[in-house]
Amino acid sequence: MSPALILGISTSVIIFGVLFEMMRRHQLREKYAVLWFLVALGALIVSVVPGLLSGAADIVGVEVPANLLFFLASMLLLALSLQHSFELGRLEERTRTLAEEVALLRLRVDQGSDGAADHPADHPTDHPTDRPADRLAGSSAARDRDRGADQGVVADPAERRAVDDELGENETR
Question: Three-class SS of residue 123?
Answer without folding.
Answer: coil
